[in-house]
Design goal:
single chain; alpha+beta; three-stranded antiparallel β-sheet; two-stranded parallel sheet
Length: 276
């Protein structure tokens, strides 16, 4: 502070000058401290810039730091994009690995299934099941041709794998098919042949049996059994299959719509087409 004036109103000039000099010294000291602080801050900024930029400075340290900060932000943005791309590549790789593992498991399962399908045990199972299916269809045919007396079953136990005939007029007795009479044997054989023709379609459209040929045996049938056998053949023909019958029985030939007829003559036999 400046000294107050003396009581008479005249200031003490020496005291005022001394106070001014003191204030000037304080101001000069404050300016020196500010310059020192500025120089220290500038040095710290320069050191920070050199450490950050890794070399000598070319220009204002603050501007260099701002430029370095912008470059760092851009680098961070690029790094974030690279990280996202890496994550997508990892997700794709994980999906491919999962697909490969799933394919390996499926291949292992298919290989195991293939070994089972090629085994004798499976083939025996398929044959046994096929025999049951054919026997069931033949049994239906045989019951119709025998007027409900006979049906067929696949034997079990000691008779496993063989066909047995069931006599429904004799307390459902089961016995070997070779115990049937000649006409009954023909009926059973015909029923099996027709059942096989029907069951061939179970293997697919390419395995469809388009034609069935029956060679004789009809002479062993009585009139009623003959009618039932012909009815069974007619049902096959109605299923868009060709039925061929080789016979010398006039009563059977008369029921065949068309075919070939062998005629004996003096010079030998000839074949002619027989119309309906």
């Amino acid at each position: 502070r400046l000294p107050r004036p003396a009581p008479g109103g005249v200031p003490d000039l020496a005291a005022v000058a001394a106070a001014l000099r003191a204030r000037e010294a304080v101001a000069a000291d404050a300016c020196r401290r500010l310059r020192d602080d500025a120089a220290r801050v500038a040095g710290e900024l320069a050191a920070m810039a050199r450490e950050t930029l890794g070399g000598d400075l070319d220009g204002d340290p603050v501007a260099c730091l701002e430029e370095a900060s912008a470059a760092a932000v851009a680098a961070a943005s690029r790094a974030e994009g690279d990280l996202d791309a890496a994550r997508r590549r990892k997700a794709t790789r994980d999906a491919l690995v999962a697909d490969a593992e799933r394919a390996a498991r499926e291949a292992e399962t298919l290989d195991l299934l293939g070994r089972h399908l090629r085994s004798d045990r499976f083939l025996d199972f398929v044959l046994a099941e096929s025999m049951v299916r054919v026997c069931r269809a033949a049994s239906t045919r045989l019951e119709g041709m025998s007027d409900g007396r006979y049906s067929l079953v696949v034997g079990t136990g000691a008779d496993a794998g063989s066909l047995l005939v069931v006599d429904h007029q004799n307390a459902d007795e089961r016995r070997a098919v070779d115990t049937l009479s000649g006409g009954e044997t023909f009926q059973a054989s015909l029923a099996l042949a027709l059942a096989l023709a029907e069951s061939a379609g179970d293997l697919g459209a390419a395995a469809r049996l388009e034609a069935v040929f029956v060679d004789e045996g009809f002479a062993a049938l009585d009139a009623e059994s003959l009618d039932l056998a012909v009815d069974a053949l007619e049902s096959v023909r109605a299923d868009d299959r060709m039925v061929g019958v080789i016979t010398h029985l006039p009563q059977l030939a008369d029921r065949i719509p068309q075919g070939l007829e062998v005629v004996k003559g003096p010079a030998g036999s000839t074949v002619r087409r027989r119309a309906a």
